[in-house]
Amino acid sequence: MKLIAYCCEKLTIHDRRFIGLLALNYAVELIELSNPKSFIDIDSSQEYFALFISPTSLNYENLPIRAHRKILISMGYDLNDHAQHDIYRKVMFKNFSVANLVVVDNPVLVNKVVKDFGYNGPVFYMPYGCQIQNFKELTSPNKNVLGTNRLMSAIHNNSMVVEAIALLQPTSYEKFVLVKHGPESQEFLLKHENLLKHIALELMVGGSEEVTRKFLSMIDVYISSSRSDGSSVSMLEAMAAGKICIVTDNETNRYWIKDGVNGFCFKYDSYALSRKIEEVLNYSDEEKKVIKLNAQNRVKDEANWDKNSARFIELIQSL
């Protein structure tokens, strides 16, 4: 059985890990949509699976689908982005009315696929998650070190994070670790140059799991300012590593984090974030220890990449 994976032009490291998993079990041909002519001449009589990775790009609207088995994989779907919602709807109605399977990483989206898009086939919930064993020992010797590694994601308002930290008393935290990605990071740093002068800042260059592990070994408190999100891999990695996560109070984050129990949620506002950070920094070491353990326990099964990927391969084989 041949498997053809169509994907957007810019794959995340998590997308590539997912495709790598499939390649262990199938002959996979990866087709990036930056070259749309590349899939026109596929033999329509051939028995193959067609997988569509994160199909929220406009490029998918007129995609010819001739596979005998069609699987829609939607990772990181933005529930509050109405433009993306419309694109997703067009893709679902136009191309996947006869899909054999829809895979989502967002638990909130499971019912929405059925209710909002009129899809009547099976929906499989599978968070990317992480390889838990690679992160569970990343305890930090540093106290009150803040950090984020989601600087250049389009759905994150990192200006809010910088503004919130600038409001803190300098003596209340040790430093703020920021992982930057690509040339856009430099633009961000220049834009916020005046604010950053008042922050004890340490920069890292991201792009690999090795950097992520090093980042998580340095921090005590993980911050994510997503307007909306799927099951954030970065957040799940931080929880697996026993970090205190402070994340936006949105529907999907609340699925994973119960405020004050295994992490914290804040309203989408720099002052609210700053107050929440202050609250966390004032917790005792024993209180923090309980929250960190609760975070690790929350993700150890449901966000376990090895378990989830095995379930997915088993599901494909059953189609």
Task: Explain briefly what this protein structure is.
This protein is an alpha/beta fold and 319 residues long. It has helices at residues 13-23, 82-95, 109-117, 158-166, 182-191, 193-196, 209-218, 233-240, 251-256, 270-281, 285-299, 305-318; strands spanning 2-7, 27-32, 48-53, 69-74, 101-104, 123-125, 145-148, 175-180, 201-205, 221-224, 244-248, 264-266. The protein is built from 12 helices and 12 strands.
Describe the structure in your own words.
The longest helix is centred in the C-terminal third of the chain and has 15 residues, at 285-299. The two termini are 12 Å apart. The chain has 2 domains: 2-129 and 304-318, Rossmann fold (3-Layer(aba) Sandwich); 132-299, Rossmann fold, CATH 3.40.50. The chain has 12 helices and 12 strands. Residues 36-42 and 55-61 have low confidence and may be disordered. The strands form 2 sheets. The chain has a 6-stranded parallel β-sheet, with helices on both faces. Strands 9-8-7-10-11-12 form a 6-stranded parallel β-sheet, with helices on both faces. The protein is globular and about 60 Å long. Helix content is 38%, strand content 18%. It has helices at residues 13-23, 82-95, 109-117, 158-166, 182-191, 193-196, 209-218, 233-240, 251-256, 270-281, 285-299, 305-318, and strands at residues 2-7, 27-32, 48-53, 69-74, 101-104, 123-125, 145-148, 175-180, 201-205, 221-224, 244-248, 264-266. The protein is an alpha/beta fold and 319 residues long.
